[in-house]
Amino acid sequence: DAEITQSPRHKITETGRQVTLACHQTWNHNNMFWYRQDLGHGLRLIHYSYGVQDTNKGEVSDGYSVSRSNTEDLPLTLESAASSQTSVYFCASSESLGKYNEQFFGPGTRLTVL
Amino acid sequence: KQEVTQIPAALSVPEGENLVLNCSFTDSAIYNLQWFRQDPGKGLTSLLLIQSSQREQTSGRLNASLDKSSGRSTLYIAASQPGDSATYLCAVSRGSTLGRLYFGRGTQLTVWP
C-alpha cells in the first residue's frame, strides 16, 4: 500500500546542532508539506513544495530549510537547532491542488532540543 | 489572513449520543474544507473532504456539512462509541494560497462507556 513515512519518530538533540527530518511518500504526489504542531498554536505550515526543485516558505519558516531532488522525498533541515523548535513535526502530501487537495499525513516526528 | 476556530475545545459524552462538532473560518473564499482525526501521539487521519461547491459529505456514521457563505462547517457523529475518542481537527484550503491548509486547534472528544 502507498504511504507516507517519517524518520526518526523521536529525536533529542542539543542547541546549535544541525538536524534533518526525513519524509518519504510512495503515492508519487507532486505536493508535499511540512507542519509543526504545538500546544496553543495548532498546526502551522513551515515549508511546502509543488514539485521537484520547487520549494516555498510557509508561515513559520525561519530556521528551517527544505530541498526537493525527487518526487518521493522532502527532508526538513534545522540549520542550528533552538529550544523554540521543540515540537512535533508532520509531513503531508497531496496529489492535486485546489478543491481536490486532500492531504495525507505521516505519523510525525517528536523533536526535543535541549 | 484565514482564521479557523473550533468549538468546543473539549467534549465528553456517554456512549450512544449523537454529537456535533463546530468549525468556523473567517475568509469564505475557500477551495475545500477537510476534517481530520488525531489519536494521542499519532498522525492525522483524513475523515472527510468537502469541496467548496458541495454542501455535505458522508462517511459511515460521520456527516460533515459546509455553509461557505456563513463560514461554518459541522461534523456530525451518530451513535458515538468509545473508539471515537480522539481530537478532531478541521482545516481549510484557500484559493489564494494554493494547497496550503489552515487548521483549527481541534476539539478533544471523549466518549465514555
Can you characterise this structure?
The complex is a heterodimer of chains A (114) and B (113). Chain A has 114 residues and is mainly β. Helices cover 0% and strands 51% of the residues of chain A. Chain A is built from no helices and eleven strands. In chain A, the strands form two sheets. In chain A, strands 2, 4, 5, 6, 9, 10 and 11 form a seven-stranded mixed sheet that branches. The relative contact order of chain A is 0.32. Chain B has 113 residues and is mainly beta. In chain B, the strands form two sheets. In chain B, strands 2, 4, 5, 9, 10 and 11 form a six-stranded mixed sheet that branches. A five-stranded antiparallel sheet of chain B has the order 1-3-8-7-6, with no helix packed on it. In chain B, a hairpin with a 2-residue loop joins β6 and β7. The mean pLDDT of chain B is 93. At the A-B interface, β4, β5, β9 and β10 of A face β4, β5 and β9 of B.
What would a concise description of this structure say?
Chain A is an all-beta fold. Helices cover 0% and strands 51% of the residues of chain A.
Task: Report the count of strand segments of chain A.
Answer: 11
The major β-sheet of chain A equals: 7 strands, mixed
Structural class of chain B: mainly beta
- Give the helix level of chain A as a range of percent: under 10%
What coarse outline of chain B follows from CA principal-axis ratios?
A: globular
- Supply Rg of chain B: 14 Å
Shape of chain A: globular
Major sheet size, sense and barrel closure of chain B = 6 strands, mixed
CA-atom Rg of chain A in angstroms: 13 Å
Low-confidence stretches of chain B: none
The counted number of beta strands of chain B is 11
Distance between the termini of chain A: 37 Å
Oligomer: heterodimer
| Strand percent estimate of chain B | over 45%
Number of helical elements of chain A: 0
